Amino acid sequence: MGKGRTAGGLEAKGMLRKPRYPKRRSVALRAFGTLVMSFMLAMLSVLTAAVPSAAAQDTWVFSQSIPCSTAPVSGVPFNNCAVSNMRSFRVGNARAWRMIFSDATSEAAFGLYRLVEPKGVGGMGPLTSSMADWLRNADALRSVTAGSFGWTQNNQYVAFQRPNRHCVGFARTGPPPGGTVYWILGGALCRDSPTPIPSAEAQFLVNSVQVRD
């Protein structure tokens, strides 16, 4: 009887020891799962970090400041200038420049969009929308055109308003008509004024701002 109890006790103890192998296997599986999860998280971090740079290629990002003396546009004493990222289009690679002027009573923004590495023929093509629509949608001019209203247009420039301000703007392509379009220049000026900016002053702005060769 005693031996039976001893054998039964050993058998019972043996049965308690049998799950130890599955337990070690479970620990190993958990360690492997943790390793896989760490690898996946690391890959996700890399992919997430790559998204902003890829998305930036779909928009104009003016993150690189430049001396205004080197800006490719003249005619206004700019005090804040920047160049954008390079973007690829069917007709080639393009870049944009943003030039800003501001003082106590006025603010102005100018944008030059230029085809710097043409591919094939055709150039950038003419403005496909009205001057007012182009100015409203130009990223380089948003600091001046945001929140604007009351747009009117003639052949040379547009007039619009912002709260407590009257504004004018223009857009044109170059080189001169008849050749391939390699750049689009646009500008907008707003001033604290209860009355519209005189047409002679608006025309002077249009004529003064020029693209450097």
Short recap of the structure:
With 213 residues, this protein is an alpha+beta fold.
Task: Explain the overall architecture.
The protein is α+β, with helices and mostly antiparallel strands. It folds into two domains: 2-55; 64-211, no CATH class. Helices cover 35% and strands 31% of the residues. Strands 1, 3, 4, 5, 6, 7, 8, 9 and 10 form a nine-stranded antiparallel β-sheet that branches. The longest helix has 37 residues, at 20-56. The chain is globular and about 50 Å long. The model is unreliable at 1-19 and 35-56 (pLDDT under 50).
Q: Topology of this structure?
A:
Layout: H1 2-17, H2 20-56, E1 64-65, E2 73-74, E3 80-83, E4 87-89, E5 92-102, E6 106-118, H3 131-137, H4 142-145, E7 149-153, E8 158-162, E9 165-174, E10 183-192, H5 199-208, E11 210-211
Antiparallel strand pairs: 1-3, 2-11, 3-5, 4-5, 5-6, 6-10, 7-8, 8-9, 9-10
